[in-house]
Amino acid sequence: MKIVLIRHGMTEGNVSRRYIGITDENLCPKGQQILNENIKSRKYPMADIVFSSTMKRCVQTAKIIYPEKDILKEELLKECDFGIFEGKNYMELSDEPLYQQWIDSGGSNTFPGGENPYGFRKRSVEGFYKCMDFVYRMNCEDKKIETVAFVVHGGTIMSVMSNAFGGDYYDYSCRNGSGYILECKFDENNLLHYSGYCGLDS
């Protein structure tokens, strides 16, 4: 079985390098253009089933890449809540003491007024396996799902990849419209076993 993890297309907040978590932005024109170029170059594999975060930028991306598919939305796959950093970039936060404290913590402290990074990662992985449990049950009904696509956020992808393959969370950072292809299989106890992965740009 293949699992395709795709980061949503670019938004205006991404262009400005802002912390965009719970802000429900649309794709920007440039983001849509890049996705369409990627489709023309056949960057994205076909998928039997498509899951998405509930955020607009992910749902819009999923509909552009997989227009013929019903998009199954999962709330647990949403991006992190960046609290008081939401909607701002590092330049705008450079004089904010709480931001410096967060940087000094190595990004491990709870975002002020927002979500704990490790809690977010746990939630993301929980949402991913909730969706894969649905796939397992579909396969038990002889639906023969061979490729599963997830259109989600950069943080969600880093959470899933670091959980599955180890290494540092930030090792799996990827650009908008890019991501990873995972090779895996279920065992008889509904546990996923991974045999490897490659980047969508590989």
TrEMBL record:
Q: Which InterPro entries match?
A: His_Pase_superF_clade-1 (IPR013078), His_PPase_superfam (IPR029033), PGM_Phosphatase (IPR050275)
User: Gene3D superfamilies attached here?
Assistant: Phosphoglycerate mutase-like
Q: Which SMART domains match?
A: PGAM
SUPFAM superfamilies, sorted? Phosphoglycerate mutase-like
A Pfam family of this chain: His_Phos_1
- PANTHER family (UniProt xref): ADENOSYLCOBALAMIN_ALPHA-RIBAZOLE PHOSPHATASE, BROAD-SPECIFICITY PHOSPHATASE YOR283W-RELATED
Name of the protein in its database record: Histidine phosphatase family protein
Report the source organism: Lachnospira hominis (ex Liu et al. 2021)
